């Protein structure tokens, strides 16, 4: 199947998903019947229907016997329905309305879980994207939510899982900082690279990225001519992380070649040949660029007759200086312009 067909199918599926209405809930259902049906929908993985029924239960019987429980289960139903932001909103609402509830720890926990899954976009689930190179905003929010949860409820039955997720998120955030530091190295922004490396070493102790942070510091200090700081960083790296990829039999191997270390071909051609590839900005990956490139290729294959009226053909630049025609001009075929 060609890529343009896949894109068309995906677009239609997303359009159908966005335009689908919430299922209607019968008006004559009692509180018990409504709650029972919502439970059946949850057990049968019909989360969209469960969300509608739980919302109806809360609005029709706000002071009923299932009011608090329906609000809690609405958090879970929204999360399983693929709506992490709605799950966070439901959790915040429950915490605000029931701060002393016996199960309020679940709301704090699910708030962190929703943020944890929010970072996994549709592309990230089906394509081999490196999560450590993506914008860590949702990961940072999730870490903060779990940190608040574990500090308030250290003995909760959900605390072990939250701590395990925090370990993963901390490693991810540290790896992202190293990627940013490497980006600065490739850009020859050595002061910024050294600061990022030091930030990893000071704030992410115990993560696998600390050794990489020390390697970045060593290389950045060498380029800056700060030999004492470079020697100190290198000694710490050798002592604590002797198996780091930047060390080869105890010798430090910088990632970025200096001007004098370039090949004779690169120097003879002033860098036109044997030029290193352009570094990617933080948060962007080669895989993401490939997806965007494939999308542009598929867009260019769209026949002209299928394009909207007055839209230039794919690949044909639209003249920004051309005056926009009014509806009257188009109606009279330009006879009165």
From TrEMBL:
Q: Where is the Outer membrane lipoprotein BamD-like domain?
A: 30-233
Tell me which domain of life the UniProt entry assigns to the organism this sequence originates from.
Bacteria
Q: Where is this region: Disordered?
A: 241-326
Protein topology in the membrane:
Lipid-anchor
Q: Which SUPFAM superfamilies match?
A: TPR-like (SSF48452)
Compositionally biased region (Basic and acidic residues) = 250-264, 293-303
Q: What cellular component terms from Gene Ontology apply here?
A: Bam protein complex
| Gene3D superfamilies membership | Tetratricopeptide repeat domain
Q: Which InterPro entries does the annotation name?
A: BamD, BamD-like, TPR-like_helical_dom_sf
Signal peptide region = 1-22
The entry's localization annotation reads:
Cell outer membrane
Q: Which UniProt keywords apply?
A: Cell outer membrane, Lipoprotein, Membrane, Palmitate, Signal
Single biological process term from Gene Ontology: protein insertion into membrane
Protein function? Part of the outer membrane protein assembly complex, which is involved in assembly and insertion of beta-barrel proteins into the outer membrane.
In terms of NCBIfam families, this protein maps to: OM_YfiO
Which family would the database say this protein is a member of?
Belongs to the BamD family.
Alphabetized HAMAP family for the sequence: OM_assembly_BamD
Query: How does the record describe its quaternary structure?
Result: Part of the Bam complex.
Q: What is this protein called?
A: Outer membrane protein assembly factor BamD
């Amino acid at each position: 199947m060609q890529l343009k067909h896949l894109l068309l199918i995906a677009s239609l599926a997303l359009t159908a998903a966005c335009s689908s209405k919430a299922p209607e809930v019968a008006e004559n259902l009692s509180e018990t019947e409504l709650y029972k049906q919502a439970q059946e929908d949850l057990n049968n993985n019909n989360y969209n229907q469960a969300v509608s029924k739980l919302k109806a239960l809360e609005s029709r019987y706000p002071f009923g016997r299932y009011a608090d429980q329906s609000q809690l289960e609405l958090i879970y139903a929204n999360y399983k329905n693929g709506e992490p932001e709605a799950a966070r909103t439901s959790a915040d609402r429950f915490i605000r309305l029931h701060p002393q509830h016996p199960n309020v720890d679940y709301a704090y926990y699910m708030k962190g879980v929703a943020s944890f899954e929010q970072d996994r976009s549709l592309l990230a689930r089906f394509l081999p994207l490196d999560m450590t190179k993506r914008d860590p905003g949702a990961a940072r929010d999730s870490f903060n939510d779990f940190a608040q949860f574990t500090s308030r409820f250290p003995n909760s039955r959900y605390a072990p899982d939250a701590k395990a997720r925090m370990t993963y998120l901390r490693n991810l955030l540290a790896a992202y900082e190293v990627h940013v530091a490497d980006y600065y190295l490739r850009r020859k922004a050595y002061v910024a690279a050294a600061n990022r490396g030091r930030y990893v070493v000071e704030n992410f102790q115990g993560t696998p990225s600390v050794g990489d942070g020390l390697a970045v510091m060593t290389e950045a200090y060498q380029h800056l001519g700060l030999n004492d700081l470079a020697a100190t960083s290198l000694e710490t790296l050798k002592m604590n992380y002797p198996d780091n990829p930047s060390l080869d039999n105890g010798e430090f191997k910088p990632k970025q070649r200096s001007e004098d270390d370039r090949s004779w071909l690169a120097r003879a051609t002033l860098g036109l040949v044997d030029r290193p590839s352009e570094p990617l900005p933080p948060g962007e990956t080669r895989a993401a660029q490939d997806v965007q490139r494939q999308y542009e290729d598929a867009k260019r294959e769209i026949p002209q007759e299928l394009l909207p009226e007055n839209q230039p053909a794919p690949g044909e630049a639209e003249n920004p200086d051309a005056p926009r025609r009014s509806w009257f001009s188009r109606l009279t075929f330009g006879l009165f312009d």
